[in-house]
Amino acid sequence: GQQVMQIPQYQHVQEGEDFTTYCNSSTTLSNIQWYKQRPGGHPVFLIQLVKSGEVKKQKRLTFQFGEAKKNSSLHITATQTTDVGTYFCAGHGEYGNKLVFGAGTILRVKS
Amino acid sequence: KAGVTQTPRYLIKTRGQQVTLSCSPISGHRSVSWYQQTPGQGLQFLFEYFSETQRNKGNFPGRFSGRQFSNSRSEMNVSTLELGDSALYLCASRRTGDDQPQHFGDGTRLSIL
Question: pLDDT, tens digit, for every residue of B14-56?
Fold first, then answer.
């Protein structure tokens, strides 16, 4: 079945450093969504990418969808303490309608 | 607009018991999905309901079941509880369409003693 792998599992950065998490699917995706879960909270939708090679930005966050629609990345520029949390990617397969989540990347920011 | 509401927030059970969790989706959302979250395991998909029909099912044993009512509210039941069932159970609702984002509730924290 469809699998979504996410790396790294955990990253601890100094405030002001950049951060990137990567997401890889075993199958081609029709779309990919990114969520953020703050400690003690629930996942909150950030953005969705649909087109091959698509790049979207939200302030310091840059999201990319690979040309083959099998991988994606989230890059945060100049991290802040408010960025702490777990970032999940989730994708719909081309033919299936089940949304499969990656295991998430835990981000800790040291001030 | 009220968000996704899950009850109860916390639950303690013992092995062998059964439990029912409840989820009220955002008004107008007909799709409800359930996820199990444990440390290091991410979000494991349990099942999705749409218009009272199970649309998708994850790889969980038959002890895990669910249903959806005509008002889109959903319940999840776990029978013969095991220690490994201790987890945060999250419910999410979305508008019709696979491109619609999931809106999560705060979850039910289930602890098995």
Answer: 999 999 999 999 999 999 999 999 987 789 999 999 999 999 8
Rounded Cα–Cα distance for residues A90 and A70 (Å): 11
One-letter amino acid for residue A22 of the chain:
Y
B18/chain A closest Cα distance in angstroms: 25
Q: What is the pLDDT of residue A59?
A: 97
Pairing of strands A55-58, A105-110: unpaired
3-state secondary structure of A105: strand
pLDDT (0 to 100) of residue B39: 83
Rounded Cα–Cα distance for residues B37 and A91 (Å): 17
Give the DSSP letter of residue B12. E
Alpha-carbon torsion (B12, B85, B90, B20), positive or negative: negative
Chain B residue with minimum CA distance to A97: B98
As a whole number of Å, the CA-based R_g of chain A is: 13
Reference B55, options B44, B45, B47; nearest CA is B47
- Provide the pLDDT for residue B31: 94
Share of chain B above pLDDT 70, in %: 98
Judging contacts by C-beta atoms under 8 Å, the chain B residues touching residue A88 are: 42-43
| pLDDT higher than 70, residue A61 | yes
Residues of chain A whose beta carbon is less than 8 angstroms from a beta carbon of chain B are 1, 6, 9, 30-31, 33, 35, 41-45, 48, 50, 88, 90, 92, 96-104
